[in-house]
Design a protein that fits this description.
heterotrimer; A mainly alpha (202); B mainly alpha (502); C mainly alpha (82); A: 202 residues; mainly alpha; Cytochrome Bc1 Complex, Chain D, domain 2; 2 domains; two-stranded antiparallel sheet; 6 helices; 36% helix; elongated; C: 82 residues; 4 helices; 54% helix; rod-shaped
């Protein structure tokens, strides 16, 4: 029996140790972080857009983080004016940091590409605006109609990509995800309660 | 024992001692009928799990192929939401990890445990229902994922309210059967595979539940995400497959494992260091730097268990690589064992900040994960199936030619895959690092390598089709019972036609 | 800092001590004295006495020295070691 106890208790001890170090301790330490004043909570439309961003898997090609400028070129490539810090993400559940830059980083896309119409057309057909893009098109976020209804927004497409008849109408989902993208602006200075520095000074 | 004997009878005494110890060993050893009884006791869940695993393998292959083709033709199949890249890719990952690999690992562990514990499988019903519940959970999760319901965390996309509880329940039922069998064991010593397999089930339950708790926000959410995703590989996929390899290598070669002590070092080193590795997926990111430093340190420490396992497995096979010509199971197990060493060393390298600054966020990561999940995990499971299925079904594989084709296509295709994405990833990373280069260049530089990846995906898919067809022929071939002169019999090498036994 | 708190120290001891104690008990009971026996426990009887075509003469000799003389392989031998 002792053999089995060594195995089960030892196995549990190692994984619990890792849980404490990487999950429980950080949770307690990061609990003190407050949202910076300039970081606005998402509106209902933007929150819905965030959900669209998740359900269509944008994270598999886009990151939302600016890495430490000491050893990466993220800041010098214009992804942001400073590296991102934990306080920038306090409202995020789940996190959307991402692990791939098949497409560019979106942490500050709202400042970089603030034109709503550009974003909508780019979603409908990225290659209408960026010929070399390999981003998938999202035509299912739009409706193809003969005529737009009274309160519906139509899309201004270049002739090569416009449908032969009728109009392309922007759906609520498309509007929401663009609203979310445009809300991604983190130009404010890094907040003072930056834990990274605090720990380093310990 | 022989020392007090008079010198005249010393020689005789020595040979008696030797004989006695031989007898002792053969008493300890299992009789073939016994082994058959163990195999029979686990037959039902093992066959069920392998069947379901093969179904998931085909589904996952289609999903993976489509995801890959979408890089080359971004306007392919964009009209429906459920066919968009951002849903197919996580579907591919989840089907391969939870559908193919995990289900096949259930079969492997349920087949190994009775043999290693020298008793029949206990709670067989729990094992069977566990496999079914698991499959149901994954099915629900997959449909929801394609319909747009995702938890939004990589490796944890399956819905935490509808799918994940079923997965936990399923794995726990299988684990209960495993642990019950372990508790009823008839041997005093625990073989190293038992350590790996038995520990994997509680590990998986703990990390999976921790990863799915809906209480984390912001960067903690990222920390938990990568704590889980890395340990799913390290404390679940890796451990069960190392257990399988530790069984297959000595068994086929006919020689005990080189050093049992090294295997214990490997096991506990892995348990201790692997669990801390996760944050190296977030190097440079917005996490407290001590967390990332901890993970980088633990990643470098991984060199201890990796080298221990690598030396142990290499020394077991060394001098007998010729055996690979005779046994496809051994061939795949050896390639898998070498890939484990390779992928771990690559992982350690990638965790170094100087390398990571280039390779992070690039296709290098995808190449790395396929080296681990395919060249190591999947090939090891293929090897296990080549060894286990004939024993459970009591039938020989029908065609050596199909086996050759499968191994060459799957192995060769994946080598091409890893090389293509590895090179493409480094080019992409160098371009992303260069402040003077527009983003466009990083895309343009990866395009040809992504196309090559699609080519290799087609090659691998062909290998999978051949393998599934061969399994189908094995299961439904009209020849019952044991073949009198099986194709792999004795001096007839399976994998290389020419050349004699040496 | 949280890492210094009594809670963490106590928790680590609660989690870490029992396996250590069991490990010591195991060592005291000699559970780790014959580890090599465990590595041989997977073999079936006579399994190590069959002809294996890839072995060199000396490899086969040392194997047979340890496990007894060569047996003729049964026709279904592939079942054991393929």
């Amino acid at each position: 029996m002792t053999r089995l106890l060594v195995l089960i208790m030892g196995a549990l001890a190692t994984v619990m140790f890792a849980l404490i170090v990487l999950v429980i301790m950080p949770r307690t330490m990061l609990a003190d972080i407050k949202a910076p004043e300039q970081l606005k909570p998402l509106s209902a439309l933007e929150a819905r857009g965030r959900q669209i961003y998740i359900s269509n898997g944008c994270i598999y090609c886009h990151t939302q983080q600016v890495r430490d400028s000491n050893f990466t070129a993220d800041v010098s490539k214009g992804l942001g004016n400073r590296p991102s810090v934990p306080a920038d993400y306090v409202n995020d559940a789940p996190h959307l940091l991402g692990t791939m830059r098949t497409g560019p980083d979106l942490f500050n896309v709202g400042s970089r590409l603030p034109d709503q119409n550009w974003q909508l057309v780019h979603l409908y057909q990225p290659r209408a605006l960026v010929p070399w893009s390999i981003m998938p098109a999202f035509p299912f976020l739009f409706e193809h109609k003969a005529k737009a209804g009274p309160n519906e927004k139509t899309l201004n497409l270049p002739p090569a990509y416009a449908p032969r008849e009728g109009v392309v109408v922007v759906s609520k989902d498309a509007e929401a995800i663009v609203a979310y993208l445009l809300s991604l602006k983190h130009a404010y200075p890094a907040p003072g309660n930056d834990l990274t520095k605090e720990i380093a000074n310990d | 024992m022989s020392s007090p004997l008079p010198s005249a009878t010393n020689k005789q005494g020595q040979s008696e001692t030797q004989q006695a110890s031989t007898l002792h060993h053969s008493e300890v050893r299992i009789r073939p009928e016994e082994v058959r009884a163990y195999d029979d006791s686990s037959r039902k869940p093992v066959l069920l799990a392998f069947f379901l695993a093969l179904v998931w393998l085909l589904v996952g292959t289609v999903l993976g192929d489509l995801s890959s083709f979408k890089f080359d033709r971004p306007d392919l199949l964009t009209e429906q939401a459920y066919l968009t890249f951002g849903r197919l890719r996580p579907a591919h990952l989840n089907v391969m990890v939870y559908g193919w690999a995990s289900t096949a690992m259930f079969a492997v562990s349920l087949w190994l445990m009775p043999r290693l514990c020298r008793t029949t499988l206990r709670w067989q019903f729990a094992a069977v229902s566990g496999i079914l519940v698991w499959t149901l959970g994954l099915g629900i999760g997959l449909v929801l994922l394609l319909a747009g319901v995702s938890d939004g965390l990589e490796w944890l996309e399956l819905d935490r309210y509808w799918a994940d509880p079923l997965l936990v329940l399923g794995a726990s039922l299988v684990g209960a059967s495993i642990w019950k069998t372990l508790g009823a064991r008839q041997v005093q010593h625990l073989y190293v595979s038992v350590w790996y397999i038995a520990a994997s089930y509680p590990w998986f339950a703990i990390i999976f539940i921790a990863g799915n708790l809906p209480i984390f926000k912001g960067v903690e959410s990222a920390a938990v995400n990568w704590f889980y995703a890395h340990n799913a590989l390290g404390l679940w996929l890796t451990t069960v497959n190392l257990g399988l390899i530790y069984y297959l290598l000595p068994k086929i070669i006919g020689r005990p494992i080189y050093s049992y002590w090294l295997s214990l070092v490997g096991f506990w080193g892995l348990a201790l260091f692997y669990a801390l590795n996760g944050m190296h997926h977030l190097i440079g990111g917005p996490l407290p730097s001590w967390m990332i430093a901890t993970s980088i340190t633990a990643s470098i420490m991984m060199i201890i268990p990796v080298v221990a396992v690598g030396i142990n497995q290499h020394m077991t096979v060394v001098g007998r690589f010729g055996a690979m010509r005779y046994s496809p199971a051994l061939t795949l197990a050896v390639i898998a064992a070498m890939s484990y060493t390779a992928v771990s060393l690559q992982g350690i390298l990638t965790a170094l900040a100087s390398v990571n600054r280039i390779t992070h966020f690039t296709h290098w990561t995808i190449a790395h994960s396929h080296l681990g999940l395919y060249m190591f995990v999947t090939l090891s499971l293929f090897g296990g199936m080549y060894y286990i299925l004939p024993r459970v079904l009591g039938r020989e594989w029908p065609s050596p030619r199909l086996i050759r084709a499968h191994i060459l296509l799957a192995g060769g295709g994946m080598v091409l895959y890893v090389l293509a994405l590895g090179i493409g990833g480094v080019l992409q990373g160098l371009s992303l690092m260069n402040p003077g280069e527009a983003f466009e260049i990083s895309v343009a530089q990866t395009k040809p390598w992504l196309l090559l990846r699609s080519v290799s995906a087609v090659i691998i898919s062909a290998g999978h089709l051949i393998f599934v067809y061969h399994c189908w022929r094995l299961a439904y071939s009209s020849r019952q019972g044991h073949a009198q002169h099986p194709p792999f019999f004795e001096l007839k090498p399976v994998l290389v036609k020419k050349g004699s036994a040496s | 800092m949280f890492a210094d708190s009594i809670a963490i120290i106590a928790l680590s001891l609660i989690i870490g001590l029992p396996p250590l104690i069991f490990l010591l008990i195991g060592v005291r009971h000699g559970y780790f004295d014959h580890v090599d026996e465990a590595s041989r426990s997977i073999f079936e009887e006579n399994e190590l006495r069959y002809h294996r075509p890839w072995e060199s003469q000396s490899q086969m000799q040392s194997r047979l020295d340890h496990h007894g003389p060569l047996l003729s392989n049964p026709t279904t031998e592939w079942e054991r070691w393929l």
